[in-house]
Amino acid sequence: MKRFVGFVRKEFIHIFRDRRTLLILFGMPVAQILIFGYVVTNEIKEARIAIYDQSKDAVTREITDKILSSGYFRLAKRIEDESQIEETFQKGEIKEIIVFEPHFDEKLSQEKSAQVQILLDATDANMANLLQSYTAGIISDYSKNIRFDNGQMPVIQTRPRMLFNNELKGVYMFVPGTMALILMLVTAMMTSISITREKEMGTMEVLLVSPLKSIQIIAGKVMPYVSLAFLNGVVILALGYFVFDMPVHGNIILLLSETLLYIVMALSLGIFISTVSPTQQVAMFVSMFALLLPTMLLSGFIFPIENMPWPLQWLSTIIPARYFIVLIKNIMIKGTGLLFIWKETLILLLMTVIFIGLSIRNFKIRLE
Fold first, then answer.
1. 3-state helix, strand, coil in the chain (%, to 5)
2. Where are the domains of the chain?
3. pLDDT tens, position by position, 164-202
4. Which residues face 160 on adjacent strands?
5. What architecture does CATH give domain 47-163?
6. In what order do the strands lie in the sheet with 73-78?
7. How many other C-beta atoms lie within 10 A of the C-beta of residue 349?
8. Which of 133, 182, 260, 294 has an alpha carbon 20 to 30 Å from 152's alpha carbon atom?
9. Could you tell me the pTM of the whole model?
């Protein structure tokens, strides 16, 4: 019995000495419960909206104040002209525009009825439904507290209008998100084991004595995966279009170019992981842990980023899939051009350059 107790004690000591084992046992569960606890929610928190007040009277100001003071919404822009509505939605600045009709107070007092139009970006159908429900509820609550001298209660009608996705199809959200997830995991994971496989199989020496430069070796590793992953992306787009009726309102060349950029970025990230990982097993573990959960939870694929606490919102800024999903939705659903998506394109391009540079640097260190 003493030998068994001693053996168990020895195993405990080995576990506590190994930092990686402790990280897996305690670090991962804590990180996952915190991320899931804060991210997995259907509540709205400070959703960015715009107000188009054509009346600008006391009642519309009171309704606006009540909406903004609820804590669910944050005023991102005041629209002064109807021509700004489409441009505002295409820029992706806001998810909802509340439109008050002209002479709102006058109609409410004389006709006992007035209308508020709620315009929503329905590329995310679930979010659009939540925003419409919250807004209509606040306005309805406000109207219940109004009474005329004769005791009559006025009626404030809310007329929602879903833009870009009138039928509220969930596929408009899941096709871009699934595409971003699949391309990231498949391409990054496949390339992350490429250089580590060379080391484990003992063929790294062949590369060391070859006349090829570091950039040439890395490019040679990446090129086959670029073509195969791009073909995979085209297949996903074709399935979305022909099987799920996903529209392509924008330029198809721009769409394919952005897809290719995202693939190259994911491959460069995979190569970088392979240069810092000693074995294929470590490379695959890092790829799964560092890419799967963040891409699913922090990219805006399933849960709105604006509903997350600010540390997770900041963390989401380094998730490449976040920008690719915005690109796909804007091009395919909204039909926007490069003028409205140049920031996301530039960020993906910058990430690609950084990962390729780090990969070359780490590869040179290993060559030395």
1. 65, 10, 25
2. 47-163, 171-367
3. 888 888 788 888 888 888 888 888 877 777 667 766 666
4. 118
5. 3-Layer(aba) Sandwich (3.40)
6. 73-78, 47-53, 96-100, 113-121, 155-163
7. 13
8. 133
9. 0.81
